[in-house]
Design a protein that fits this description.
The chain is built from three helices and no strands. The chain is elongated.
Length: 108
Amino acid sequence: MAETDPDELERRIAQTRAELARTVDAIADRVSPKRVAERSVAGMKQRAADLVGSVGDALGVRPRPVRFGDDPDRLWDDRPNLAPVLIGVGAVLAVGAAFVLLRRRRRG
């Protein structure tokens, strides 16, 4: 048999309204442009930190904290050899430029 007590019905209605208000507030917070931007920035910062960490691992460089007044010439425990990395980047840029030029010639 269904509950028909008016006080009980009012209590349930108030409880449902409160739950609905919390749900609407949570949805509004989740889709607000400010929150979306904050999540995007946090994600990009994390991806950048991961990239820097992986490049450091590839170069064999370990990060260490820098303190105010540190000698700039002693910021690296072991100076990384950047020559192979720079050569690789240059080769990728040269191949990419050649690829773009060839595609433009074929179109034109």
